[in-house]
Amino acid sequence: MSLRRFTENGEIEGYMSESLAEEFGLVKVDLNEFIHKFVQPVIKDNLELKKERKNSKEKEEILNKMKRKYKIALFLVIRNSQIIQKGKKLKKTEKEINKMAYETLCEVLTMINFNRAEELYKQGKNAYEDYEEILTKENEEG
What we know:
By secondary structure, the protein is mainly alpha-helical. It contains four helices and two strands, in the order ββαααα. It has a two-stranded antiparallel ribbon with strand order 1-2.
């Protein structure tokens, strides 16, 4: 591998491979040109990659938090709407009631047809969004 020398103010600052110098179109290689054409783009690419990774990690963390909140919400709906009344009648402890609610949650999750449930969810969401749109138009007109 042949090296091309680059200088700054007549002093040798370093070397880079001949093929790399040609790839970046560097005929006379000085330090500023080397930094501008080679080092800065590499640093910029690395910073962008780090930013993308950070954004991806943040999105994943948000998604995990949302999943956890949905699980807890479903647990509480099951617990508070069905299990707690039955548990109190049977004089169960809070721990026993929570255990029964969790067991029921697990059973419910295995019984749901999620494809059909998603269709129902989308219908409800669309109806809600349509209603919100109507209210917004009425507020703008009135």
